Amino acid sequence: MRELVVYQGKAGARPAFVARVERVFAEHLSKRGLRLTGQRRAILELLLTSERHLSQEEIHQTLRAKGIGRATVFRTLKTLQDCGLAAPVVGRDGTPRFEINLDRPHHDHLICVECGRIQEVRWPALEKIQEEACRRAGFSPRWHRHEVFGQCRDCARKARA
């Protein structure tokens, strides 16, 4: 089972989604006097095609054969976060792992402390409770994130065996 599904629409529309992500990134870079280089494009493409949340080090290890250095990965991830295209999820060891989040529905994460698997979940009822609590408090939320740490189904099964 895939841990991460970046694009959830119709398969035929995926190229348009990828082009939109690249355009948003290129425009953000251009405003800062930077270009969407081959190295930045390779990092973005890896994030767009990954079936799981990747750490900075995993991205570097995957792309270093293409001459992409650790500093380039770090700076590109920071820039992707700055323009709202990528978000970190803290893994079981405290290491941030990244996901593309453009046009994705809000979701939270269940993180297995045994194997490190990150499962995305949506809780509409919990969202309504949060919205009501904020409204009652006169609080205007900008964002939130829930990360629940525990044991995934597979690891729990292994522990019982």
Describe the structure.
By secondary structure, the protein is an alpha+beta fold. The chain has 2 domains: 1-104, Winged helix-like DNA-binding domain superfamily/Winged helix DNA-binding domain (Arc Repressor Mutant, subunit A), CATH 1.10.10.10; 105-161, Ferric-uptake regulator, C-terminal dimerisarion domain (Dna Ligase, domain 1). Helix content is 45%, strand content 16%. It contains 6 helices and 6 strands; from the N terminus they run ααβααββββαβα. Strands 1-3-2 form a 3-stranded antiparallel sheet. A 3-stranded mixed sheet has the order 5-4-6, with no helix packed on it. Strand 2 and strand 3 (96-100) form a beta hairpin.
What descriptive keywords fit this protein?
2 domains; 161 residues; Arc Repressor Mutant, subunit A; three-stranded mixed β-sheet; three-stranded antiparallel β-sheet; alpha+beta; Dna Ligase, domain 1; 6 strands
